């Protein structure tokens, strides 16, 4: 295990602008996702999870459908090929209704989340240099 990685993540979390987002809440919310998704870098597993869905390490800022060896639905791969990169806004749109988002039959079912922006902020802590502006995401997804 390389101790430097958590150090970067910790400092990144603290460097976030003061915002309504609560990363701890987001971490709890991720329990809904763990059945199918792990969060693991090459040398460290941050959240153990199932393998039904792709690894979500670095998902914010990552091209859609780009985990090598994972069998995505073709529509998602196409969106990635067309330049779709996950951010804290489109990720929440996606999980709320994957079929509509990709315009096809997704391998992921709709996920109801209570604290979407917190979840997105939590996921962003696993992305180096993600453009983290959770405030903006919160505005756009607020009902
Ligand atoms: C029942 C299993 C399951 C659960 C629960 C689940 N997912 Fe997924 N997820 C998948 C599968 C399967 C895919 C691949 C979808 C496809 O290929 O169409 C996916 C894809 C994704 C992607 C796109 C990944 C990429 O590499 O482009 C994101 C983002 C994502 N899930 C986030 C979440 C979040 C956040 C949660 C919790 C709120 C969640 N998922 C819960 C199965 C699941």
Describe this structure in words.
- This protein is mainly alpha-helical.
- The protein has a single domain (4-128), classed as Orthogonal Bundle (Cytochrome Bc1 Complex, Chain D, domain 2).
- It has helices at 4-15, 23-29, 31-34, 74-81, 90-96, 98-102, 116-124, 134-141; strands at 39-40, 45-47.
- The chain has a two-stranded antiparallel sheet.
- β1 (39-40) and β2 (45-47) form a beta hairpin.
- The protein is globular and about 35 Å long.
- Residues 130-143 have low confidence and may be disordered.
- The structure holds heme C.
- The site of heme C (HEC) has 27 residues, from α3 and α5.
Q: What is the CATH T-level topology?
A: Cytochrome Bc1 Complex, Chain D, domain 2
Beta content comes to under 5%
Reported for the largest beta sheet, the result is: 2 strands, antiparallel
Write the CATH homologous superfamily. Answer: Cytochrome c-like domain
Oligomer: single chain
Radius of gyration: 14 Å
Q: What is the first-to-last residue Cα distance? A: 42 Å
Q: Unreliable runs, pLDDT <50, ≥5 residues?
A: 130-143
Distinct ligand kinds: heme C
The tally of strands reads: 2
Order of helices and strands: HHHEEHHHHH
Number of helices: 8
Spatial strand arrangement across the major sheet? 1-2
How many domains? 1
Which percent bin holds the helix content?
A: 40-55%
CATH architecture: Orthogonal Bundle
Shape: globular
> What's the average pLDDT?
85
Structural class by helix and strand composition? mainly alpha
CATH hierarchy class name: Mainly Alpha
Summarize the helices and strands and which ones pair or pack.
Elements: H1 4-15, H2 23-29, H3 31-34, E1 39-40, E2 45-47, H4 74-81, H5 90-96, H6 98-102, H7 116-124, H8 134-141
Antiparallel strand pairs: 1-2
The chain binds heme C (HEC).
């Amino acid at each position: 295990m390389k101790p430097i990685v958590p150090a970067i993540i910790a400092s990144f979390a603290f460097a976030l602008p003061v915002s309504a987002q609560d990363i701890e809440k987001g971490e709890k919310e991720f329990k809904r996702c763990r059945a199918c998704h792990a969060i693991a870098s090459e040398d460290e597993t941050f959240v153990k999870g199932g393998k039904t869905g792709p690894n979500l390490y670095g998902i914010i800022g990552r091209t859609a459908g780009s985990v090598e060896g994972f069998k995505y639905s073709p529509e998602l791969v196409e969106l990635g090929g067309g330049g779709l990169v996950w951010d804290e806004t489109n990720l929440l749109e996606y999980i709320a209704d994957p079929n509509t988002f990709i315009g096809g039959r997704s391998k992921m079912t709709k996920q109801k989340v209570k604290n979407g922006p917190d979840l997105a902020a939590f996921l962003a802590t696993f992305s180096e240099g993600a453009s983290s502006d959770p405030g903006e995401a919160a505005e756009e997804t607020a009902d």
